[in-house]
Amino acid sequence: MEQGNERVLAQRLLELAFKADLSAIAVSFTAGIGTCGYLWLQGGDQGFLLYWVIALFALSALRIIAHLRNGENGSTSALNLELASRWRWQNVTGLQCAGIMWAVLSMHTIATMPMESAFVLVLVVFSMSTGATGTLAPLNWPAKFYFLLMVGPIVAAFLARPMPEVTLAVVGLLFFLLNVVFHKANHQTLLKSEQLRLANGKLASALSREQAELKSLNEGLERRVKERTEDLLFLAEHDLLTGILNRTGASNYLATLAEHGGSNKKTVVLFIDLDRFKEMNDGLGHAVGDEVLRTVAARLRENSPSGAAVCRWGGDEFLILYPVDGSNALEEGRALADTLRGAVEAPIRAMSHELRVGFSAGVSISAMDQSSLYEAIRSADLALGEVKRQRRGATRVFSDDLGKRFERQLLISQSLRSALSKEELKVAYQPVVSAETHQLVAYEALLRWKSPFLGDVRPDEFIPIAEDLGEIIPIGKYVLDRGLEELAASEFGKTGVKLAINVSATQLVDNRWPQIVESTLTKHGISAEQLILEVTETAFDAADDNLVQSVLRACRQLGVEVHIDDFGTGYSSLERLHQYPVTALKIDRSFVQQMSSGGLAIIEGSLVIAKKSGLKTVAEGVETLEQARALAKLGVDHLQGYYFGKPEFHFNRPFKGPLSDANAG
Predict the structure, then answer these.
(1) Is the same domain home to 253 and 223?
(2) Which of 44, 75, 467, 530 could be a cystine partner for 39, CB 3.0 to 4.6 Å?
(3) Nearest-5° angle of CA 232, CA 153, CA 31?
(4) Domain span at residue 48?
């Protein structure tokens, strides 16, 4: 009789599991679609997410088909007991396959996406796992293995991160154990409930007590789930290291501002970046760096006004959002930056080190709607970038002119990537003549860019951007190749006339540059003595100083001349000047144009340096006969400027002009 009761009880549990099967499949499918949609919007691996959704759809369809095929007369809630054994195997297999799919999604997301996105996924998985303690109560070990598949990979993924999230892994492990405990309680309660149902009516009061216990357990479970959800939400919105808001928390704060802000209100957006924090972090260790970040975050929070939000945007970047009255928003923004600067720059004690940290800041003012707030964050970041490029430790307020300049730089950087392949870059040539005879001695190759969208773009605009993008390497090769090719094809190729090309510091830290120069000279049949490399004094400050010297010496050994361009505008020492294989100094045009004032003294000083060092001199920017005569009288060797010829896209003979007053008339 007892064995008969056990068989009936087992069938009853299968019937209960069958009734809950479709809703469990629907929950898993809906949660999967919603979670993948969220991860897709957050920049997740779209290919992976698409394949995962397809697999989830296929698995859900197979589970539904299996459910329908095992129902009593096509019913979706009544199990055909003759097919119960087959359905039990199919249900367990489908359930564990679903657990495996969620395990794959969890490990991939935690390993490849920001923690904010990972927390959302963890929240969904934990919620599903919690709900399954009730829906899977009819099942015993298959349910526990399902909990392990759902939660276990999350724990492992947190521990496998480059910086293991031990706390979160422990929380996940505890959550798994709680699920097992509550599921066991629910399973036992269900067993008891069914046993009571099979018993006679004398046990009705006992059944009521068991139902009360089950209700109490469910309420306790719901309470614990709510508390855990609140804890996870806090973790999702706050930076684990500093305790202040993270990007997700800042985003939610912005949404609150936009919803409750008044029309006469503005928001001060202050974007802060710690100066030279990376050097401190690398030099003293990450433990010291972490302590500095915690201290800075605490000082920002303590010294920010009431109602302001302090956020760690990432790394050593912080964001302050502060609602103010619109009339004096700019003044309050500047005052807030000064207040915070004073607090942050106070000495910091970190692991026996006393440190001082400064910061650069960008400020912008925004209306209270959400789109304007996000735009203001971008504007403050742009203003911060301008401070870091020009002078660290300052505060810059965003302006429309700054925004237009950044917009143009962005357009230049985008167009520049394809300018060479679209043949928009051209090489022009300006003659260089002997100061004494005005005879042609060389041409300088000057790069010109005419964009169909931007028009004529000045070299001082696009060359620095090309260096930042790494495009200066192929552009430099193009100028060298095209210049030598056109020189060889001209009437001057075999006359000894030289060609000067400008070389950036980026090219000079490439130890292949001498081989590139040599092979290009050989390709076009031009002797090395006809090539001049013009480098600016900024090349002397390259971090790889020894490599720059080595590259220039290798070029000089080929016979190539090395000239220092724009001499006098940089900040190289004479000692370092002698360390380089320089053959000539090129005096900047600004000194030639200011010969009547302070420029003359600088020219004379440059000539003294060149003479003592055994170097030739070239003066550029010569626009008048008087300038040419004065420079020749001072002892300048070569002249270049509009007086002798403007840059042209072919080799024009220079205008010689009169050599003296006697033949000037």
Answers:
(1) no
(2) 44
(3) 60
(4) 2-237
